[in-house]
Amino acid sequence: MLLKYFYDEKLAHASYLVGCQKEGVAIVIDPSRYIEQYIEFAKKEGMEVIAAAETHIHADFLSGSRELSNLYHANLYVSDEGDCDWKYQYLNEGRYKLVREGTEFKVGHIKFNVIHTPGHTPESISFLVTHTSQNNYTNDKPIGIFTGDFIFVGDIGRPDLLETAVGIKDTAKIGAKQLFDSIQKIKILPDYLQIWPSHGAGSACGKALGAIPTSTLGYEKMFNWAFRCNEESDFISTLLTAQPEPPKYFSLMKNLNKYGPPIRK
Q1: What CATH number was assigned to the domain covering residues 2-259?
Q2: Does residue 198 contact residue 148 with C-beta atoms inside 8 Å?
């Protein structure tokens, strides 16, 4: 298995290419608009990008998933969780699979299990990754999880953007409760799991994101305030207090990614 980390410092956005070297195929997680970087890297490694996956409908950058599907025939794996207000609206035009809690798919010998982790947004999902072509001992053991805007290094995603940036009233507290429940679900996973988030320090998707690019679940259990806060009411209060003002472009970007960013010629 090959894992390549891509980071846009201006947007504090992280995306990832996961490749199966045995089969020569790769998937991009939460791709940015600059899809050439993934295609060129894959070619250099003797791989073909055959898929892209999104953890949720993003509000802070323009997604490259639609272009990867239309220009390079990549299969899309996107969330079918949440209510009808936040479903992808452009998926009738290409290759896609709607995924939910419990969905499993593979890219080469790399298995992805979908976990519904709402709170930042209702449709948010995480991808638990297992490399199935290793020895018998590790064949069924996950190695990491792509958490999107759910878990960051030292923080978690903010639950108020649907209310403050998009204008859907009374959703912040609901999202905060969902985040509390999502953390309880993730806590039972092994401490050794690597955590691969979609943002780093400087992102407006959380209050206090760390500058370290990746983490482990055990580290977050020890140092992330959200994992150490065991009372739901305290958790909700702390999470909703002093969230920064969201950038004005978030609402526009959310809708562009929902209805499909324009494809460059």
Answers
A1: 3.60.15.10
A2: yes
